[in-house]
Design brief:
The complex is a heterodimer of chains A (312) and B (366). Chain A is mostly helical and 312 residues long. Chain A contains 15 helices and no strands. Chain A starts with a helix and ends with a helix. Chain B has 2 domains: 229 residues, Rossmann fold (3-Layer(aba) Sandwich); 112 residues, Nucleic acid-binding proteins (OB fold (Dihydrolipoamide Acetyltransferase, E2P), Beta Barrel). The chains are: A mainly alpha (312), B alpha+beta (366).
Chain lengths: 312, 366
Amino acid sequence: MQAGTANSTLIHGAGGTPPGGHAAPTSHKQTTGWLVMPSVGVLLVWMIVPLAMTLWFAFQRYNMIDPTIRGFAGLSNFQDMVTDPDFWASLKNTLLLLGSVLVITVCLGTLLAVLFNQSFPGRNIARVLAISPFFIMPTVAALVWKNLLLHPIYGVVGVLAQKFGFTPIDFFAQFPLASVIAVVSWEWLPFALLILLTAVQSLDTDQLEAARMDGAGPVAQFFFITLPHLSRAISVVIMIETIFLLGVFAEILVTTNGGPGNASTNLAYLIYSRALLQFDVGAASAGGVVAIVLANIVAFFLVRTVARRLET
Amino acid sequence: MATLSLRNIRKAYGPAEVIKGVDLEIDDREFVVFVGPSGCGKSTLLRMIAGLEPITSGELQIDGVRVNERGPADRGLAMVFQSYALYPHMTVAQNMGFALKLAKVPAAERDRKVREAARILQLEPYLERRPKDLSGGQRQRVAIGRAIVRAPKVFLFDEPLSNLDAALRGQTRIEIARLHEELGATMIYVTHDQIEAMTLADKIVVLQAGRIEQVGSPLELYHHPANMFVAGFIGSPRMNMLPVSVLESTAAGITVSLPSGAALTVPSTGDVAPGTALTLGLRPESLRPDPDGQLAGTVKLVERLGGLTLLHVETEGREDVIVQIEGLSMLNINHPVRLAADAAALHLFDAAGMALPALTRHSLVA
């Protein structure tokens, strides 16, 4: 069905092009509009079909444990959800995770970007090392943190703690969300660093020298010249990270399984557990609809502020 | 109110020395222009005075006080950059008041000073605009305004006009000259444009390869260049250089023979034996077509500029001796022509390129 739609629009689009291809500017605009239809059509189908199915299931009784119970559910899936304490906890965890990681990566990323822009011996190696966590896939990164770094017995932190006479802490059990935040921040800091470093490098050195002549010390230069220059790149980092951080999943699955209890369950993990651990497709779809709404609310504010930044 | 004194200033990047010992005195209220070909070190020298580049050795004094170790903000200087270096996220008023804000000047006084500078530079209607909403000439004025607001002892200009179009450049040049009159400040100005150097300067410093070639007033450099480099660099079109040999040296000057055998007497002195090879410098504007002229040649190219005409004449074994004549001349390509030279405007240079001293100084040059 998908290919058929694309094909028909393609033929339609080709038919709309005037022979010879020498069109006046006005008709040019009209005819080229059809040429983008195939890609728009594919993207539309790509988006509409899953969205429609999610909405459909959200209003159905559909639990794979007992497939005989079917039929229209009305709002009962949503009713169950808002009365479910897990849901509100996961919503809070989602936003907490998003906000914390954003603050950590943007603040540290900005400082590191300024640092890595200075010349010091071994700078290129240091840059590669700082950026490398980004190339490690989330499951592996989570495993490294869980077993090699934070494990109370075998982990580096645990061993060090024992060596200095402290009681090792089982981070993922005692501070589950904070530990997940640490893992995700570690993964995304390189991204922020990379974007912000290129932005710092594009800063006109004349401006910094003019500021020096005007009496600005290193701190004043950072706050009055570098930071305003970075504002655009920072908003891009925030926007892209937000899109990805709303759906953090692998790190939670590998390290805490959303627990203990629901302490580190975010919305994505909650939907997963409803759909594939409890086989309640209807409840999971209702969660999905909420996730879509949430993402759109966040995106609305973000796109508005970022678009305004990018204008200037 | 400021005097500057540069004592054997040197700058080296590793083993490569780019400023090779510069000694210079700059008086109060003087307009000094550093001029030279690109890569001669003029911008580096300016940046060393500004404090943006550390001084490798030597001493820089402002008002008799050594300032080598002081930061750029503590030397009491202000600099106008070639790229203007305006802060893009600040309005014109914020740009101009930034230094005062950092110096914690009260807002009311800051505002008054910014408005005063804006008045001088006719920037009042633009105070709330951002740099990107201004034209090139306005940005240039904001950059100057940012310097004025600080009331510095010395203004430093780093090729401030090179990003402007020709018309605006002429206009801004006049504004800078007016500003110098009005503010009575010491100014140091770097340029590669000799028209800017000639029109603005009280004192021109010609630099080449990190060394000072000559220091003097614009007319002194034009009429009495110390060497061939300065003679060729100052004046447009360039001075023509011809190889000559000495016939005799008398009290009236040195008589030299041209490659064609023609003889010319140049009012210069010097201890030169007959037969010595010298270089004769003739400015294009000191040559004129004359039926009795000593130089015979053929016109190879005619450049008509309207008010002036430039002839490229093949003579004395050279293809491109340039002669500047009035614009209505009827001379055409391939015309035979004889040229006479104004004897007082001739220059002789020895084998090392140094000028032989003229018998009389030009009346405009004290």
